[in-house]
Amino acid sequence: MKLLVMAKSVLSNLFSRPVTERYPFVEKKYFVGTRGKVLIEIDKCIFCGLCQRKCPTAAIVVTKEQKGWEIDRLRCVSCNACVEICPKKCLVLDTKYAACSEKRYKDVFHA
Ligand code: SF4
Ligand code: SF4
C-alpha cells in the first residue's frame, strides 16, 4: 500500500510543474506588506536624526551639517521603526529586498 502511495507521488511530481521558481530568470513576486529595504525621499528630509536614534540596530547615520543620510543595509532588520517615527514621512519600506553583496556597503544620500 505504501509503495502505491509513493509511486503515485513520484508520478505526479514527474508530470507537474516544479513548485520552485527559476530565480533570477523569473522575477520574484512580492506580497503586499512585504518588509523589504528602506527607501528615502531625500528632498523631504530635514535631517532631524529621529530615525537614527530610533533604529535598534544603528543602521542609519544622519549628518545634519552635510545634509547626509546613510544606511547600512546589512544592519537593517526592516523593523519599520524609522518609517513610523519620521516626522516628514520621507521613509518607506519597499516590498523588495536590498541586493545581495559579498561586501558590506552603505547607501548614502545627500540633499
Ligand atoms: S526622521 Fe525623517 S526627516 Fe528626520 S532625519 Fe530621519 S529621514 Fe530625515
Ligand atoms: S527598518 Fe528598523 S532596522 Fe532598518 S533602518 Fe529602520 S529602524 Fe533601523
Q: What does this entry look like structurally?
A:
- By secondary structure, the protein is of the alpha+beta class.
- It has one domain (about 30-110): Alpha-Beta Plaits.
- It has helices at about 1-15, 50-55, 80-85; strands at about 40, 60-65, 70, 90-95, 105-110.
- One iron/sulfur cluster binds near residues 45, 49, 86, 90 and 91.
- One iron/sulfur cluster (SF4) binds near residues 38, 55, 56, 57 and 71.
Average pLDDT, to the nearest integer?
92
Which ranges are low-confidence, i.e. pLDDT below 50, for 5 or more consecutive residues? Answer: none
- The strands making up the biggest β-sheet line up spatially as 2-3-5
Reported by name, the CATH topology is Alpha-Beta Plaits
CATH architecture level-2 label? 2-Layer Sandwich
Note the quaternary state here: single chain
Number of separate domains = 1
- Count, helices: 3
CA-CA gap between termini:
70 Å
Approximate helicity band: 10-25%
The helix/strand class is alpha+beta
Strand proportion: 15-25%
Overall geometric form? elongated
Largest sheet report: 3 strands, antiparallel
List keywords for this structure.
two-stranded antiparallel ribbon, 21% helix, binds iron/sulfur cluster
